[in-house]
Write a structure and sequence with these properties.
two-stranded antiparallel ribbon, mainly alpha, 4 helices, single chain
């Protein structure tokens, strides 16, 4: 039995010989385990929190050597900040991602900014 360490998160897995994930800093073993965790969050009582799992995995396993990897990390960190610091509902995660990407091509304020309540 040999072990393999994920280059993204550092988690050590039993090497099952799974192929590395293209465009990610992840072993196939880590991606498989993450898929199982993400699948568990489709349970009705957990579905509202699934975006935490998706964004955390994306941040830890983005390929830092590519522009898309850096952008994915930034996007996921921004939405996690909106959930944790600004009180945006986690269930709106994919909507926030889409709105932020649309905001990148606009010259005005991003469309989601008006919904953020900055606590005192």
């Amino acid at each position: 039995m040999s072990l393999i360490s994920c280059p993204g998160c550092g988690l050590v897995h039993i090497d099952r010989g799974l192929p590395a994930v293209p465009d990610r800093a992840a072993t196939g073993e880590c991606a498989a385990e993450a898929g199982a965790v993400q699948a568990a969050f489709y349970a009705p009582d957990l579905l509202g929190y699934r975006q935490y799992v998706v964004d955390a995995y994306a941040c830890l396993h983005a390929d830092p050597s590519t522009r898309i990897g850096v952008q994915a990390t930034a996007l996921c960190l921004m939405t996690m900040d909106l959930y944790l610091e600004c009180g945006q509902p986690v269930s709106e995660g994919s909507i926030l991602h889409q709105e932020m990407m649309c905001g990148l091509v606009r010259t005005s304020s991003p469309p989601w900014r008006h919904r953020i309540s900055m606590g005192s």
